Amino acid sequence: MPDAPAIPLFDFSRFREGDAAARAAFAAELGAACRDTGFFLLENTGILNARRTAIFSVARGFFALEQAKKDAVAIAHSAHNRGYVAQKVEALDPASGQADAKEAFNIGLDLAPDHPSVVAGEPFRGVNLWPEGAPAFKPECLGWYDACLALGLELHQAFALDLGLPEDWFADKFRAPMATLRLLRYPAAGADAKGGIGAGAHSDYGSVTLLATDGVAGLQVQPRALRGTDEWLDVPSVPGAFVVNIGDCLQRWTNDLYVSTPHRVLAPAQERCSVAFFLDPDPDAVIEAPSVCLAPGEAPRHAPITGAEHLSERLNATYAHRAN
């Protein structure tokens, strides 16, 4: 097996509370991880463990609802990537011939039905779908959404510093982002499910992903050192820390300097829950590599594309209900 790099652990208080020199040093170390594995662990983010406990509690409560209540808010009812995804509906790795065993629930930027963008039918500007019979569900989900959004925006300040951009370079690209909070449940694999998959091998679509897990193993990554092999690297669990990874959008934005690394979730031996926050930019943000990401004389590797166009391309390849 080739030598695979370890997944580093970063203390975010170094960036949040440090002086200019400390913030620059943190950003450089973070940037090295973004170029290498594309995955890292982040602790001391300021998001309280009590809030983490609450979001996992409402997530498990939702998945325990009777199937009819979950189906009433199915993602097929939304053109904007909101709602419930049943088991075997999603296939993140179509080439494998296996549908994902997981079930999920997606929440986007919370807009009122009379919001001008909703009324106009703008892409990824729909209303959220909320289940009946779960009064704590909406406030806890929106509280977690807001906390992760603030953390994700701070991380982009560190990315900007590492890349040699002004610290606020990403700010106007994330004014009302297409961020998605995703609650996930992976049922325990039965004795006959050896080799099954909880989530097929894929890379994430957005700019950055913040993942909270319940500590049950199953998440694996395949960094560059392991590409072309059958080997995968297990992602460790650190209590209270986020698993963070670079998505395809940020890889494209950095002209492939940062790497969006393939990962998968094996069918777990026991039920596994996680809460993922996928941070995509504004729908009209233009994803185009700045000059600092180009070597002298190098042309951009990717044509400019808007955030909405990029996300639509990826989702249309994943969900059958979006085919039309």
From TrEMBL:
Sorted alphabetically, the keyword list is: Ethylene biosynthesis, Iron, Metal-binding, Oxidoreductase
Q: Which residues form the Fe2OG dioxygenase domain?
A: 177-281
Tell me which EC number(s) this protein carries. 1.13.12.19, 1.14.20.7
Please name the pathway.
Answer: Alkene biosynthesis; ethylene biosynthesis via 2-oxoglutarate
Entries under Pfam families matching the protein: 2OG-FeII_Oxy (PF03171), DIOX_N (PF14226)
GO biological process per UniProt:
ethylene biosynthetic process
Q: Name one GO molecular function term.
A: 2-oxoglutarate oxygenase/decarboxylase (ethylene-forming) activity
Cofactor(s) recorded in Swiss-Prot or TrEMBL: Fe(2+)
* The protein's enzyme class: oxidoreductase
Q: Which InterPro entries match?
A: DIOX_N (IPR026992), IPNS-like_FE2OG_OXY (IPR044861), IPNS-like_sf (IPR027443), Iron_ascorbate_oxido_reductase (IPR050231), Oxoglu/Fe-dep_dioxygenase_dom (IPR005123)
Q: Which domain of life is it from?
A: Bacteria
Answer yes or no on keyword tRNA-binding. Answer: no
* Catalytic reaction list: L-arginine + 2-oxoglutarate + O2 = guanidine + L-glutamate 5-semialdehyde + succinate + CO2; 2-oxoglutarate + O2 + 2 H(+) = ethene + 3 CO2 + H2O
Family, as annotated: Belongs to the iron/ascorbate-dependent oxidoreductase family.
Query: Which PANTHER family does UniProt cross-reference here?
Result: 2-OXOGLUTARATE (2OG) AND FE(II)-DEPENDENT OXYGENASE SUPERFAMILY PROTEIN-RELATED
- Protein name, as recorded: 2-oxoglutarate-dependent ethylene/succinate-forming enzyme
